[in-house]
Design a protein that fits this description.
With 213 residues, the chain is α/β, with parallel strands linked by helices. It is built from four helices and seven strands. It has one domain: Collagenase (Catalytic Domain) (3-Layer(aba) Sandwich), CATH 3.40.390.
């Protein structure tokens, strides 16, 4: 990755051009025909406007509405100091950046650490940052574009503008995880590790969202 292996759980710093998307697991569901509420929070490293976030959200969620009859309502867009970094680490975890390779709790760029900074309840909560996100798995750390919780009591997501993918795509991809998608694919699908397929879900991933397990 010089940059990112997009949305893969494994992936290492050596793989190029995609990104890694860590997903963590919680447990229960919401269904088609629902109207979930969402909130966007952004940290100081996000340098865009609130309007850009609103536009991306609107564009990302219209596909859920037309395809699955899941109509999101954006309740608020706010800056949050919880999403600021304690230190300006420049990359994924290392032993020297902040003296810790514990991504989940102490590394400034740890995706899980940041995700857990947002309170959890039934609102879909999207955190936006502008710096590298790291995700540790299998003893390795990789750059990721986003991290999302599977269906459960909370539906949190963190995405970064650092990797250069569109916000629409990032939101649509991670919200799909929040709605029950646990895998990725190489079809013409939002769950492809590619920035191209928006508003399209393959049959498998459509069914995941419809079943929302
Ligand atoms: Zn993913
Ligand atoms: Zn660090
Ligand atoms: Zn890490
Ligand atoms: Zn798919």
């Amino acid at each position: 990755m010089r940059k990112t292996k997009l949305f893969k759980r494994i992936s290492a710093f050596v793989l190029a051009s995609a990104f890694v998307c860590g997903s963590i697991y919680s447990a229960s569901a919401s269904k088609t025909g629902s109207s979930p509420s969402a909130q966007i929070l952004y940290g100081s490293t996000y340098t865009g406007t609130e309007q850009r976030l609103r536009d991306a959200f609107s564009s990302a969620t219209s596909g859920f509405s037309s395809t699955f009859d899941i109509t999101f309502t954006l309740s608020s867009v706010n800056s949050s100091t919880a999403l600021n970094r304690p230190r300006n680490c420049s990359d994924v975890c290392s032993t020297f950046c902040c003296g810790s390779s514990n991504c989940d709790s102490s590394h400034s760029n740890g995706g899980m650490r940041i995700l857990r900074k947002m309170s959890s309840n039934s609102t879909f909560r999207i955190g936006v940052v502008g710096h590298v996100l790291c995700y540790g798995t299998g003893g390795k750390h990789a750059r990721i574009a986003g991290i999302a919780e599977f269906p459960g009591e909370s539906r949190r997501t963190v995405i970064t503008t650092e990797v250069g993918f569109t916000l629409k795509y990032l939101m649509q991809h991670e919200l799909s995880h929040n709605l029950g998608v646990r895998t990725h694919c190489s079809s013409q699908c939002v769950m492809n590790e590619d920035n191209t397929y928006v508003d399209k879900w393959c049959t498998t991933h459509s069914n995941d969202i419809k079943n929302n397990k």
